[in-house]
């Protein structure tokens, strides 16, 4: 049975308040607003209003934010998936490693959890950085701006070290074991390891290559996403949405926002891999900076793409998801590992009257409202681990309210038969959203995690996710059983 640490956010946050070992994180009482993207150049002409109805909703919301409009001129490059299989011969970690080796000036990567050591995704990253350094060192003239690599970890509550540095130290140890320097001024090489310093922690997973190629994902750099035939592998299914174009600069702005709220791992230049834990310390990070070539917003296609980000003090991603649900006319397909009510209602499937609609999470009430308007909703979710009870309650509560209104036929829910960590939303076959943001109370609201998602109206992206959803729906899932009390629910409400 899978056991996801992320789902223990409420418990871990409580521990962070009460236990010294988790005290390295700070409370963001005044985190401030997010600074907007600041590319050195933006391709002409300015973006026009989208013709798509749902893209227009996201565009109007984005235009309320400061900064240049980077939503047009983008290109869909594909989905990165885990685990490796016959259908996915190269997983997300391998494809990202190839991108890193091909970088020309900058690599930015942030994720919540990190698994270091041989055979793990963290080592796949480290090996790619080693190869990139070898290329830069062998031919510095080919990299006139030098090379900058930034790795930012999510500050997941650390029960091992009081400074919260366990994961950054493991990442640095792998890199140093491969001979990768943190700095080499002779060739303009800079490697930085950062760790988010606030509670709630960062759940964001994205990487940006050279300021133009961005992937926003749901997978962590852990062994769970490897095939079950490999040590630690659990065949955990997940994906990332990869695009190129101006919107990548919005991803840089997200990375920079996390950077401003992070600490940097500082080590002596000659530190050996075995001495990293003893000689490296977490210190205040310098302000974000980027090589000039990685600060240009470059048009690469015709698709719309929208960066959706949230943290304490920033609610853009929340509002964007709700805008899409509110704009749905016909169909919403949710592929969500987590879909549940607030913590107080996790066991509402036993007695749903204890969790009236007024106490539901915002996303649940908006999903219900969509079905009341006539939208058909399909939901794929999981039935295992600590998420089993809240997921079961989320489905049961929706079914109860729909039955009370005579609208049961507008909702279908199925449990996946394989391990799934995916977080996607497709609306009206017009737009697809992928990223780290669950339909889980810990991912929403003023006390929610830092999260990121990416939306696009590219027809190929929408079609590919539709095909993936249909495959799992038809061949990799089973119906969520009815609760014993459901047949006794009477229709007593009229919309």
Automatic annotation (TrEMBL):
Gene3D superfamilies per record: Endonuclease Chain A
Xref: InterPro entries: PLD-like_dom, PLipase_D/transphosphatidylase
Sequence ranges assigned to domain PLD phosphodiesterase in this UniProt record: 416-443
Matching PROSITE patterns: PLD
SUPFAM superfamilies: Phospholipase D/nuclease (SSF56024)
PANTHER family the record matches: CARDIOLIPIN SYNTHASE, PHOSPHOLIPASE D
Listed name of the protein: Phospholipase D-like domain-containing protein
Source organism (scientific name): Deinococcus rufus
């Amino acid at each position: 049975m899978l056991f996801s640490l992320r789902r223990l956010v409420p418990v871990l946050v409580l521990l962070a308040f009460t236990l010294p070992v988790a005290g390295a994180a700070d409370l963001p009482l005044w985190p401030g607003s997010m600074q907007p993207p600041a590319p050195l150049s933006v391709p002409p002409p300015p973006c026009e209003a989208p013709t798509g109805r749902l893209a227009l909703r996201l565009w109007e919301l984005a235009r309320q934010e400061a900064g240049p409009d980077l939503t047009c001129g983008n290109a869909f490059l594909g989905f990165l998936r885990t685990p490796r299989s016959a259908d996915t011969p190269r997983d997300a970690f391998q494809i990202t490693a190839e991108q890193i080796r091909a970088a020309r000036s900058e690599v930015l990567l942030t994720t919540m959890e990190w698994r270091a050591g041989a055979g793990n995704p963290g080592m796949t990253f480290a090996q790619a950085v080693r190869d990139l350094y070898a290329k830069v060192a062998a031919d510095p003239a080919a990299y006139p701006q030098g090379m900058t690599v930034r790795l930012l970890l999510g500050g997941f509550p650390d029960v091992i070290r009081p400074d919260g540095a366990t994961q950054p130290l493991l990442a640095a140890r792998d890199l140093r074991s491969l001979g990768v320097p943190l700095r080499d001024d002779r060739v303009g090489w800079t490697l930085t390891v950062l760790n988010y310093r606030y509670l709630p922690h960062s759940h964001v997973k994205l990487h940006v290559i050279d300021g133009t190629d961005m992937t926003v994902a749901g997978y962590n750099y852990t062994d769970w996403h490897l095939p079950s035939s490999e040590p630690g592998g659990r065949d955990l299914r997940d994906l990332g949405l990869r695009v190129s174009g101006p919107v990548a600069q919005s991803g840089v702005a997200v990375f920079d926002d996390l950077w401003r709220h992070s600490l940097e791992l500082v080590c002596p230049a000659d530190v050996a891999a075995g001495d990293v834990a003893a000689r490296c310390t977490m210190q205040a990070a310098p302000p974000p900076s980027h090589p000039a070539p990685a600060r240009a917003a470059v048009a690469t296609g015709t698709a719309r793409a929208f960066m959706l980000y949230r943290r304490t003090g920033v609610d853009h991603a929340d509002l964007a998801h709700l805008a899409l649900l509110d704009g749905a006319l016909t169909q919403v397909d949710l592929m969500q590992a987590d879909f549940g009510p607030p913590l107080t209602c996790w066991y509402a499937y036993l007695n749903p009257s204890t969790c009236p609609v007024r106490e539901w999470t915002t996303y649940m009430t908006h999903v219900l409202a969509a079905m009341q308007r006539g939208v058909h909703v399909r939901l794929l979710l999981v039935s295992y681990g600590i998420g089993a009870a809240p997921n079961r309650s989320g489905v049961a509560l929706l079914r109860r309210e729909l039955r009370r209104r005579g609208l049961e036929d507008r909702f279908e829910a199925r449990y996946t038969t394989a391990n799934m960590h995916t977080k996607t939303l497709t609306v009206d076959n017009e737009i697809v959203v992928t990223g780290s943001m669950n339909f889980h109370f810990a991912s929403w609201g003023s006390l929610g995690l830092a999260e990121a998602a990416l939306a696009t109206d590219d027809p190929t992206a929408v079609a590919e996710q539709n095909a993936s959803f249909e495959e799992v729906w038809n061949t990799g899932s089973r119906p969520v059983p009815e609760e014993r009390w459901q047949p006794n629910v009477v229709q007593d409400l009229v919309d």
